[in-house]
Amino acid sequence: MRAMTYRGPFRVRVETKPDPEILHPNDAIVRVTRAAICGSDIHLYHGLMADTRVGQTFGHEFIGVVEEVGPEVDNLKAGDKVLVPFNVCCGTCYFCSRGLYGNCHNTNPNATAVGGIYGYSHTCGGYDGGQAEYVRVPFANFGPTIIPDDIDDDDALMLTDALPTGYHAAQMGDIQEGQTVVIFGAGPVGIYAARCAWLMGAGRVIVTDHLDYRLEFVSRYGPAETINFTHLKDPVVYFKKITDFVGPDVCIDAVGCDASGSMLQALAGFHLKLQAGNAVALHWAINSVRKGGTVVIIGAYGPPYNLVPIGSAMNKGLTIHANQAPVKRQLPRLFEHIRNGYIKPSEIITHRFPLEDIAEAYRVFTSKLDGCIKPIVMPTAA
User: How far is CA 166 from CA 144, 188, 199, 275, 308, in A?
Assistant: First the structure.
């Protein structure tokens, strides 16, 4: 099959790899019809995630058609059209039984750090991802979800990670009616978090980023107030000032380790790799939020330490919520929101690339070219 392969930081290409095979009776093989490039794939592309090995195929956002199932798979059959949550999860362990599918204890040798994730380094289990023609899907009796007939394929693709993650961010914020929410980052997850904050009862939603075209998009889609932080002398002071010098009730870090906005953080985290990426968005979130407020970390960070003002978090009495989104848990409600017209996930898709042009797709997305918000990849087999 043809598949994207990682060749080192800033280097990806399409190569021929062996077709995946059934390795366990509970496996399925899925022919990919659509995949997406996620902002957290860019962390891998930039070499910011530990143990990202040459030859791995990225892509934790994909849908497709079941080609083959193992002898113990009875919930799926060949020909079923499925969306595959980015969490590789067993459905039966201590954490899965509590709905914490992003923390599955049986799908990753490094389970004390994170659960399994498709195409996201050996830190997350070493599974090949969906930027390929075919994917092996473990625990197929639990993870894959048959796409309902009334859900569009592009919408279904956004349900594999981006929308559930943005929804989970708003959910973890424990937003009370009328509260002010500030979201750091206007990428796909930040855009969805802004939209979903209204569903949770927010009274005011503000998004900050350094790219005007993304801010213009979220101002319409959110809808949200927006501010380009490069126009501010000090973002923390600004967010205090516009909230009567108290601070927002909830701050959401929807950026993670590839943020912009601090030369020191960029030097230590991006160039010298002395910490797990640039944590300036989290720094701003902790220092901006009001005392007794809530900070949500939904942007991806690697497992080592970061330059984070944890003393401020303690002294301000903050509640911090963070986790990988448990996609399977969010799907029933999100299907309902799509059917009711509250959200149309596919509206953020701006670019489509054939699999053979994957290097160009990464270049356009990581360099923020051509107004790119969300690119999807169409494998040859589709």
Answer: 20, 8, 12, 25, 23
